[in-house]
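Thread: adenosine-5'-diphosphate complex, take 2
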Amino acid sequence: MRVIVVNSGSSSIKYQVFALDDCTSLVEGLLERIGTRDARLKHRRLTEAGDWEEFVETRPVADHREGFQFLLEVAARHPAAHATPAGVFGFGHRVVHGGEAFRDPVIIDDEVIRRIKDLIPLAPLHNPSNIVGIEVLRALHPDVPNVAVFDTAFHQSMPPKAFHYALPRELYHQHHVRRYGFHGSSHQVVARAASIHLGLPTSRLNLITLHLGNGASATAVQGGRSIDTSMGLTPLEGLIMGTRCGDLDPAVPFYVSRKTGRPLEEIESILNKESGLKGICGLNDMREIQRRADEGDAEAQLAIEMFCYRIKKYIGAYYAALGRVDAIIFTGGIGENSARVRKESCAGLNGLGIILDDARNEQASSGVVEISSEDSKVKILVIPTDEEREIARQTIETIRRATHKKGHLP
Ligand code: ADP
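Output below.
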């Protein structure tokens, strides 16, 4: 049987199909421009020869319901060539915000949907489209279990001293203002991969995981549990990102609003969409920024310097929080591919026992790669993230546990 992982966004649906037995990826796809007359579906399937075959189709798609019908129909027309029977074991949904209500993945029922809806004020851009995906698939396939896997869940282990803001306490009690953290599946999956690579159980490992993509976050993982993370109430806090500013003096938005006469909503949008790397140098794609920096562009050079300096400060902070660090892990599009960012982020940390091996760093290509020097006390690893596979794994586990509890052993 198969497990289908769904990431339902406001105008797009990302999906991936895995074999139940070994979690092999069989199909992946992206439907974009939902709500337009030329919605575009890119669908890739694994062939018998083990290659990927791609299909692109365009048609009008009014809403998510039509979107799911479209992609399920294309998926049925171009199934993966794999021995696994075609039935669907479960749908795994990526849900951005689980608030304090969800510490683990859950089987979705009406009550769970109601609680995810209650969290919409905390994630107004994401949770509503996540819910649409859940509701449409429940209606289309009422017999298949749906599981919600939350970006925030892994960080629910943070202690109060890490998750509270120093604000009047009623803002927490009445309005749930606290730090939640995101990218949970990614931090969790690379922490597990590090434990396999190092041959030590997660319970004995202290790690700093750095997810560096368009969004970026750092997490301090102690004994397999997140004890602190750089994103907060929203994914705006922490590291410098493609278009998000990360940490900022909270007075800045008010000052800018007074000076420019622009409303706070506009400034919120600037902090989310016009800041970060894009704000510093006009570009948010790290490949392009590195190219410009190599050509001598001073703003591109500054963007990389600032990006890496912020990462270095978090490494220092989380080193102090953890007391002992066994490994630092780089992941995400930038973390996995940019030797320059990894080098600059770790530069000058020899005093903490963090020493990069330049040649290994330059050569790191695919899979789990150790890029620290032999005399580095702290291992430095590059580990590809795989959030979808992690969601598939958690979906399978959650359904199996629930079936087991009910006494229906699979
Ligand atoms: P998302 O957060 O959207 O999943 P990704 O994890 O795919 O993003 O990361 C996207 C970022 O990774 C972009 O800034 C891109 O430029 C960067 N990136 C991808 N490949 C490279 C590379 N070879 N060198 C430097 N940066 C890279």
